[in-house]
Amino acid sequence: MNIPPQIKSLLAQMRSAGYEAYLVGGCVRDLLLGREPKDWDITTIAKPEEILRIFPSGKYENSFGTVLVPMKSLLSDQDEQESGVVEITTYRSESRYQDHRHPEEVKFEDELDKDLERRDFTINALALGLDIEAASPEIIDLFGGQKDLRQRIIRAVGEPEERFKEDGLRLLRAIRLSAELDFALEPKTERAISKLAGSLKFIAPERIRDELIKIFQSPRPSEAVARLASLKLLNYIIPELVQAIGVNQNRHHIHTVFKHCLLSLKYCPNPDWRVRLAALLHDIGKPRVKKMQGTEATFYNHDILGAKMTEKILRRLKFSQADSAQVVNLVRNHMFYYNVGEVTEASVRRLIAKVGKENLRDLIDLRIADRLGSGVPKAKPYKLRHLEYLLDKVQSDPVSVKMLKINGHDLMELLKIPPGPVLGAILDVLLSEVIEDPARNNRDYLSLRAVEIFASDWQSGRQQAKNVIAVRRQNDEAAIKAVHWVK
Ligand code: ATP
Ligand code: MG
């Protein structure tokens, strides 16, 4: 099993100090599945003060019995690779969840069993002990977690309804884990989720947001959202999306708005959760602006309304301002017009200015998602490839005098001359030289050369320069076209 040396040494230190200590929760689950754990949790009989005595670099910041120890501090040698923290938590049980949010009371315990009982799912209630002497690690499995791991099942520890009533976030954790691991929900657990969907109302939006982000980062976000809808959890998270269920579109679409949103998410080629979220929400304005029925239905301005709705949804769920702005921007601009032959380079530049250079890739990916989600099979039609080509072309701004570190005004000042054709000629010659060697693009070199060119036969120099530039332009354009497969 792939346990980092820091963790092994930490467990050994605790045991030689006389305390029981086990790896527990998600990291044990992931180790047994052969996945790389996201974080390392340790549960122990030692009380926080005792943990701190063994690991003076640890920090004890809350009253839940968790001490954070930086991984780096655990190995003295040159081993720099691993960073992050290990969470060491004293055995504890929880009781009295009055507000469905946080346990009212955390009680330290003397037995591992009590600590495992409070955990949400059988696959998350496994503990792993490492005895230096023993050949293989010892696994403590009180609730059949290993069997559920083998059968790929998410099953609540104990009575599902009670456990979900204690903490409603577990409803969402179940869906999130099934999306991450491709596990099924055990039927009784699933029924309890659907029955108690309303408990999500009491959960802090930040906690919901964090689970949503993990769902969108998982390999199966659209399946998870479909399940959120069928189990009615979606009503308490994004009710606006529930409004899209069953809303038919027009003759350009074969799917309802909701199905199309789900499929766009499914086929989104970009792994960034923000782009995926935009794919899910891009048509969220449609149900409210729909005019007429049947094949003639219209959805004017759904992009504008959709952007406003998206902003409201993400504010409600406490997404950061930056994340929200990025998703809203994509939803707002997903309808950008593009037709080969009709769109000029200038209008492509305007699109870049509006959307932001750094968001273009995402916007194109959203467009691809949108197309694939509409049932049209071609991933990247000629139109999109052509747009990508134009974007590349206007962005790289192939060889123009504008990229020179000196301009006509500078030359007039430097050479004490009025405007005239000699300025253009000098700039052309300078450009041809910079093309040959970009390192020459500095004011010292360019000023020096400008004086020389001015004193020489600049007419014929200009002709030579133009040839160099023309050849370079052709090569560049051919290269960019080849990259985008356009003629
Ligand atoms: P991840 O891979 O995202 O870290 P995880 O299962 O490890 O998933 P954590 O939030 O790191 O999730 O929690 C660690 C462990 O703490 C869980 O495996 C589970 O045993 C327990 N746990 C976390 N949240 C809850 C909860 N809301 N109710 C009960 N147990 C929980
Ligand atoms: Mg974890």
From TrEMBL:
One of its GO terms (molecular function) is nucleotide binding. Its cofactor is Mg(2+). Residues 274-372 form the HD domain. Pfam families: HD, PolyA_pol, PolyA_pol_RNAbd. It comes from the Bacteria. Residues 21-155 form the Poly A polymerase head domain. GO terms for biological process: tRNA processing. Residues 182-242 form the tRNA nucleotidyltransferase/poly(A) polymerase RNA and SrmB- binding domain. SUPFAM superfamilies: Nucleotidyltransferase, Poly A polymerase C-terminal region-like. Keywords: Magnesium, Metal-binding, Nucleotide-binding, Nucleotidyltransferase, RNA-binding, Transferase, tRNA processing. Belongs to the tRNA nucleotidyltransferase/poly(A) polymerase family. NCBIfam families: HDIG (TIGR00277). PANTHER family: CCA TRNA NUCLEOTIDYLTRANSFERASE 1, MITOCHONDRIAL. This is HD domain-containing protein. The lineage of its organism: Bacteria, Candidatus Falkowiibacteriota.
